[in-house]
Write a structure and sequence with these properties.
The complex is a heterodimer of chains A (about 250) and B (about 300).
Chain A lengths: L2 H17 L1 H23 L11 H32 L2 H6 L4 H30 L7 H25 L3 H21 L8 H7 L3 H14 L6 H25 L6
Chain B lengths: L4 E9 L5 E10 L4 E5 L6 H9 L6 E6 L2 E2 L4 H6 L1 E4 L11 H11 L6 H10 L15 H13 L5 E5 L7 H16 L3 E5 L3 H7 L2 E6 L2 E7 H8 L1 E8 L15 E2 L5 E7 L6 H11 L4 E8 L2 H12 L1
Parallel strand pairs in B: 3-8, 3-9, 6-7, 7-8
Antiparallel strand pairs in B: 1-2, 1-4, 4-5, 9-10, 11-13, 11-14, 12-13
Helix pairs in contact in B: 3-5
Classes of the chains: A mainly alpha (about 250), B alpha/beta (about 300).
GO molecular function (chain B): ATP binding
Pfam families (chain B): ABC_tran
Protein name (chain B): ABC transporter ATP-binding protein
């Protein structure tokens, strides 16, 4: 394995993150704080508890998930799209690195950023609402798993995209709406039965509920199902990326 | 000696059906400077891309220093440095960091001394902490060369290295290329400045429309295809062309100018002999002009012949 190569890509991407650390962290922390003020403190105080959890605490896992998903996708897609756009990708393609090593570098860095941002938001949330985490190790594990999976997804997006605007479309028009509809702000059981069935086709439901389970020990969906869906999505992303590099799709001519 | 790069039957057909390379056979010798010449769209960059892993060949095999570039890509690519034609650089990264990145990417641990030497050789040392975006085009080009050399390659590809580079820098660059060759690095370059190839290269390959038309030692090529024209201006017009040691000149319409053509395979003294004999023949002349055909003339002739 070309460990130096992996570390070079990883370090390069982390440096990019550090160069823009203020935007990288300030913007998600600010927007999440606003959610906590509006939904957690202001509106939340008027809401009843959901499954024995206060409304403010209930939305914490969903809001962390919202930021982690969008940040993972946009960081990772940008990370691989930028060298394609500027042409510097030639160097990675001509280097003695394997597909797995390239992914490890790019996706590893994007996932690291997401975990850092997710942790910061978790700490911020604690300032606004009191909550205890039932399975902290599982929370950490789930955060890493989700960050890696969606960084992989973002990597694919960055390879498929043929313009900067397309990088924005997926987080804005797919991830954010699906997360909002994925039970971030409500329990699925609050929906009419027909909509409950429809909601189960939204993959984000499984992520939000799996993450919520690690916080409070209960969720709308069984944790095994949540975990299974997350791993399945990750496997699909890995399969697509392997195909991309094997065929050279959009990378090699 | 085993060639450092062996290309056999290399083909590249793009999805559009365009055949960019049509069965290229080419051996690059260890330690030589090889110039690849060809008009735009001839397949130079595609050929380089195929060796470096940027282009997926549709047929044929390539080995670099004995390693198959697809089966044994790690070993093969570790030996190769590539300076691309386009000025593709990261904008906000410093010179030092981008060069250190390249070294790591190619699998080598940090070596500050070596990188310092490269940057000094390329007159980039005082710019090592500058962001690439702040550098001029010529300096960006040198940064790309530094990146390509960062992993101590045995083979260096320079795709149009002097495009957009000023005269002084170009001279520095060629000095560096010569130094590299002295260190045993094999260099393959493409250039539009044919006089540079003539000046620099040991061997020359001409590629046109995806085919190698000719590969020849530069001196042999000049000898075989080069010609010397000796143009004599006369005091008095002549009616008949004076044949001297087998050379019959072309006489101008006014009879005042004689043009003798001496082929490249004749001895180097042939023009001098001709003039001595001309003087002895009693013809009175006022001017002598000699033009040696350049590689450029040869190149144009070759490519035009194939069109």
């Amino acid at each position: 394995m070309n460990l130096h190569g992996v570390l070079a890509i990883y370090g390069f991407e982390m440096n990019r993150f550090l160069r823009t650390i203020f935007q990288s962290i300030a913007s998600p922390v600010l927007s999440t704080s606003l959610y906590f003020i509006v939904f957690g403190s202001a509106i939340g105080s008027q809401m009843t508890e959901i499954g024995g959890v206060s409304y403010g605490a209930f939305i914490v896992p969903g809001l962390i998930m919202l930021t982690v998903l969008t940040e993972s996708v946009s960081n990772s897609s940008f990370g691989i799209y930028l060298p394609r756009f500027t042409g510097t990708i030639y160097e990675v393609l001509s280097a003695p690195v394997e597909v797995g090593e390239v992914i490890l570098g790019y996706v590893g860095a994007a996932a690291t950023k997401s975990v850092i941002i997710g942790t910061i938001i978790l700490a911020t949330a604690r300032l606004f609402v009191p909550f205890e985490i039932v399975h902290p190790l599982a929370t950490a594990g789930y955060l890493v798993l989700i960050s890696v999976t969606f960084s992989l997804f973002g990597f694919i997006l960055g390879i498929i995209a043929d313009g900067f605007e397309k990088l924005q479309i997926v987080p804005m028009l797919i991830i954010t709406p699906l997360t909002f509809l994925g039970g971030t702000f409500y329990s699925i059981s609050m929906l009419p039965p027909a909509w409950q069935t429809v909601t189960l086709f939204n993959p984000i439901v499984y992520l939000v509920n799996g993450f919520r389970w690690t916080f409070y020990g209960k969720a709308d969906v069984n944790i095994a199902v949540s975990l299974g869906m997350t791993v399945l999505f990750m496997a699909i992303c890995v399969a697509i990326i392997s195909w991309v590099f094997k065929t050279g799709y959009r990378l090699r001519t | 000696m085993e060639p450092i790069i062996a290309i056999k039957g290399l083909e590249k057909t793009y999805d559009s059906g365009h055949k960019a390379l049509k069965g290229i056979d080419l051996d690059i010798r260890r330690g030589e400077i090889f110039a690849l010449l060809g008009p735009n769209g001839a397949g130079k960059t595609t050929l380089i891309g195929a060796v470096c892993g940027l282009v997926r060949p549709t047929g044929g095999t390539i080995t670099a220093d004995g390693h198959d570039i697809s089966k044994d890509f790690r070993a093969a690519r570790a030996k190769i440095g590539l300076v691309p034609q386009e000025l593709a650089t990261d904008m906000f990264v410093t010179v030092w960091n981008t060069v250190a990145f390249s070294r790591g990417l190619f699998g080598l641990g940090p070596n500050k001394k070596y990188l310092e030497k490269i940057l000094k050789d390329l007159s980039l040392w005082d710019k090592k902490d500058a962001k690439i975006a702040t550098l001029s085009g010529g300096m960006k080009r040198r940064v790309l060369i530094a990146k390509a050399l960062s992993h101590e390659p045995k083979i260096l590809f320079l795709d149009e290295p002097t495009a957009g580079v000023d005269v002084e820098l170009r001279r520095d660059m060629w000095q560096m290329v010569r130094r590299l060759r002295e260190q045993g690095v094999t260099i393959i370059l493409t250039t539009h400045y044919i006089e540079e190839a003539e000046d620099m290269a040991d061997r020359i390959g001409v590629i046109n429309k995806g085919e190698i038309i000719l590969v020849e030692d530069k001196t042999a090529l000049m000898r075989k295809l080069g010609r010397t024209e000796v143009v004599i201006g006369l005091k008095e017009p002549v009616d008949t062309a004076p044949t001297i040691s087998g050379h019959t000149p072309v006489v101008s319409d006014d009879g005042l100018t004689l043009t003798y053509v001496i082929d490249g395979d004749e001895t180097d003294e042939a023009p001098a002999d001709l003039i001595k004999k001309l003087a002895q023949s009693g013809l009175d002349f006022t001017s002598i002009n000699m033009n040696r055909s350049s590689l450029e003339d040869i190149f144009v002739t070759l490519v035009e012949d194939k069109v």
